[in-house]
Amino acid sequence: MTRIDIGAEEDFPLEEGVYIGHEKTGGEPIAVFRTDEGIYALNDRCTHGNYSLSEGWVEDGTVECPKHASSFCLANGKVLNLPATEDAPTHTVEVVDGRVLLTPQF
Amino acid sequence: MSGVIIAGGSVAGFSVAAGLRDAGFSGPITIIDPHHTALDRPPLSTEYLVGDVELALAPTEWFSDHDVTWVQDTAVRLGQGFVETATQRFAADHIVIATGAVPKTLQLDKPVYTLRNIADADALRQALSPGVNVAIAGGGLLAPELATSAKALGANVTVFTPQVPAAEIFGELAETLYATMTEQVEVIERRLTVEENLDRFDLVIAAVGVEPNVAIAQGSKLTIDDGIVVDEAYRTNVEGIYAIGDVCRIRNQPRQDHWDHGRASAARVVHTIMGTEPAAPTPAWVWSDQFGHDAQAIGRVVPQAHERLVRRGDNVIFVLDGEKLIGSAALDEQLIIRAATRIMTRDIAVDPAQLADPDIPIRRLTR
Ligand SMILES: Cc1cc2nc3c(=O)[nH]c(=O)nc-3n(C[C@H](O)[C@H](O)[C@H](O)COP(=O)(O)OP(=O)(O)OC[C@H]3O[C@@H](n4cnc5c(N)ncnc54)[C@H](O)[C@@H]3O)c2cc1C
């Protein structure tokens, strides 16, 4: 598994998602979220349908899909409400010396 | 712990089972439904009709993982403490009726299709071949959604609508949606009746509303009046029997037939069964995908006399009563609706000037 440098920490606004395309992840697109608590990465595609979690609403350690409002826990990808019923796959992401490093788990 | 029987396993019925297990309910849960598993309906008119999409609300292993029994059958009778199919009798302390609605249709000298189930969608897919001439009748959300899909499948589409569709749901943004539709397909502004000359059409799709599917309650002691009548906690007049989703109507309120009402009414019943304090009810939320637009609305977006309409650009509206947000509708601006939901459920006071200013991030107004 490779660790990819996806940018500087300040390029990841707090409480927002950032879309990392497949050309970078080498697999499915990934959504990276930075909050006061930490930095998290989930598959970008909502497990309910073709909607982008990076465009979702980030709050209290969760992201809510912008389309039909299923929420997922940022830390473990667990789905919290319908219509989605499957958890979102998570990926390893960390900040090292101000750089954001993503290790996709495909 | 005593058990729960749920008649009807779509969004409303399934949400009861899922919600009970989430809340730690450990008694037996049985869902009776003639379909093979829990299926969602909104994609039937959009993604499912033009392509392929998973309709199941949960993978099959969900049911064994959560110890929820799925009985593929139709419930025909019920009373206090029991539900019967043609061949089986089930007993439980709590009975939830979630049998949904059935489409109204039109009597015409043409094949008339309606859309509610997967079989209806499959039949429509067959019928909507390229070049076919289809008339779609209806004044709600479904007619424009069907028109979008029929056009994508290559049909020649004519929509008959007596009014701007879904104007009570999307407020003045319904005009924008209507304008988009008239650019894309032929629109005839009148109700489709038997008087209409339909020679040029091969088929008709009726999207003219639904009727609550109350068959199971006929002959029971339950009060039926445009739906199974319930109180605000979705309790019927018989102890231990609840009705939720499209099949019910809260006494003295209009019936609601939207997805989120199915989910929200289920959540309310879960609290009653668990004996826990319900969260404040969330305002009604509706969405529709049509002609490339993502339309969403929360709360009420047609202002009353003392209220005020606030526009934020061309595609977002809010209705305010003083500093209180009453509702919002948005086209292709999903985060507005996520924000408005929070502003409303948390009862946050808002300044109309800030709401109207697209340069002020909406997120800031939710804190
Ligand atoms: C094509 C289409 C598009 C839609 N699009 C939207 C949209 O964009 N936005 C929106 O908000 N809403 C939309 N809706 C409405 C939304 O799907 C419904 O409000 C929602 O499905 C209601 O859920 P429900 O569980 O109450 O009933 P239903 O979904 O009708 O489910 C009822 C279930 O009960 C079962 N059943 C019926 N009778 C019995 C019986 N006697 N015994 C056992 N089981 C029984 C049925 O098989 C069915 O599975 C759409 C509906 C349709 C049909």
From TrEMBL, chain A:
Domain of life: Bacteria
Cross-referenced PROSITE patterns: RIESKE
Domain Rieske: 4-102
InterPro entries from the UniProt entry: Rieske_2Fe-2S (IPR017941), Rieske_2Fe-2S_sf (IPR036922)
CDD domains from the UniProt entry: Rieske_RO_ferredoxin
UniProt keyword Transmembrane helix, yes or no: no
GO molecular function: 2 iron, 2 sulfur cluster binding; dioxygenase activity; metal ion binding; monooxygenase activity; oxidoreductase activity, acting on paired donors, with incorporation or reduction of molecular oxygen
Record key words, sorted: 2Fe-2S, Dioxygenase, Iron, Iron-sulfur, Metal-binding, Oxidoreductase
Pfam families named among the record's database cross-references: Rieske
Record's protein name: 3-phenylpropionate/trans-cinnamate dioxygenase ferredoxin subunit
Automatic annotation (TrEMBL), chain B:
Keyword Oxidoreductase in annotation: yes
Keyword Flavoprotein in record: yes
Pfam families: Pyr_redox_2 (PF07992), Reductase_C (PF14759)
One term of GO molecular function: oxidoreductase activity, acting on NAD(P)H
Keyword annotations from UniProtKB, A to Z: FAD, Flavoprotein, Oxidoreductase
UniProt cross-references to InterPro entries, sorted A to Z: FAD-oxidoreductase/Apoptosis, FAD/NAD-bd_sf, FAD/NAD-binding_dom, FAD/NAD-linked_Rdtase_dimer_sf, Reductase_C
Domain called FAD/NAD(P)-binding: residue spans: 4-259
Residues covered by the Reductase C-terminal domain: 285-365
Cofactor(s) in the UniProt record: FAD
GO CC list: cytoplasm
Name this polypeptide is given: NADPH-dependent 2,4-dienoyl-CoA reductase/sulfur reductase-like enzyme
Gene source species: Enteractinococcus coprophilus
